[in-house]
Structures are given as C-alpha cells and as structure tokens.
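Take a look at this chain, tokens included, and explain the fold to me:
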Amino acid sequence: MIKYRLQCSEGHQFDEWFKSMSSYDERKDAGDLVCPECGDGKVSKALMAPSVGSTVGKPWQGNAPACSSASDGCASAGCPMANAG
C-alpha cells in the first residue's frame, strides 16, 4: 500500500491510499478520483516530503567516535570503525 497526498484544481488537498504506484494511474485514467470536499475530478498528486527518521538516540548514525584501539587497527567487532569503507 502507498499513500499519496492529492490535490484538486480548486486547491483542496487530501490523502488517498492505493494498492500500488500503478494503481493511482489506473484510477486517475478511469476518472475514479474525486475531491471529497468539492467533487472536482481534476485531481493530481501534490508535492510531498518524504518521511525521514531522526538520528536522536541512535549512536551508530552521524559522526562515528574515534577508534580507541589504534594498535589492532579496528579489527575488533565492537569497534565503530570496523568494516568501515
């Protein structure tokens, strides 16, 4: 399932769920998409920002700490720099 933010030619925005990306095109081509507020059939996808998770509380994201074990060259599995690159 995928959710799109849609907008009618009058500027009303609403969300609609679709089985797949191609399902939107099929329903649009069939004229099955109408604005729930005004009944306008001229509906298109509105600009949406992707949902991006926060890095708060996730120590493995962002800047990695410096390796504390320079002698083994980050060979230990617990080192944040192991297998980097």
Notes: The mean pLDDT is 77. The helical segments are 21-30. Residues 1-48 form one domain.
